[in-house]
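We modelled the chain as a single entity of 219 amino acids. Its sequence is:
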Amino acid sequence: MPQIQYTVQIATPVERVWAFVEHLPNWAPLMVGYQKVVEVNDRQSIWTLKGDVGMLTREVDLQADITVWEPLKRVEFTLTGLTEKLSGSGSFTLEPVTGDDTGEAGTPAGESPAAAAPTAPEPRRKRRRLREAFARFQARMMRRMMKRAEGADESVRAAAATIASAAADRGGEGSRLTFELQVQPGGPMAPMLELLMAPMLEPAVSDLTTGIRAALEAG
């Protein structure tokens, strides 16, 4: 079963990344071969994709069902082919990072973030947790300040925005987003189709993940 994982670091707080990712129309068009998506309900959607290899030389309808929904942390889903014999699963994982966290912008296909770097010593992990807790507290305070400034005049709102922006810069708060996808074709042609699909998944996963980063950092 072809399985691809890709990780990017985004210079945007977790709360903003989550607000973008949880709204399907924000990022669905970034998927390779995207034609359309229909939201059946808050846990199910129907995707129409089109490609140029094997079974994907025509449009394929896939049903995506969310199985795990942990706000600000993780989403898991399953895939079921409606017009082709196809199944799969995937996930989005989100975690906060601070300015002195290190790591590659992208994790190569099939390599987990945990394997890419040694486990941090316990004192470092404690310091990181303290920084992340402070960053979350700081973000809450900034949101409250901006909310209180909504009814004030323009000069007060501008001052509040400047303070909030400066605080965010000092905190260096960002996010690490990991997208994982695995797909299993079915039917008598499954082994051949699996070989054809494997090289298609890597750009699909990496383009989507980097596209989300670009959209957030540009905004």
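As a brief sanity check on the tokenised model: The longest helix spans residues 190-218. Helices lie at 14-21, 24-27, 113-116, 122-149, 154-171, 190-218.
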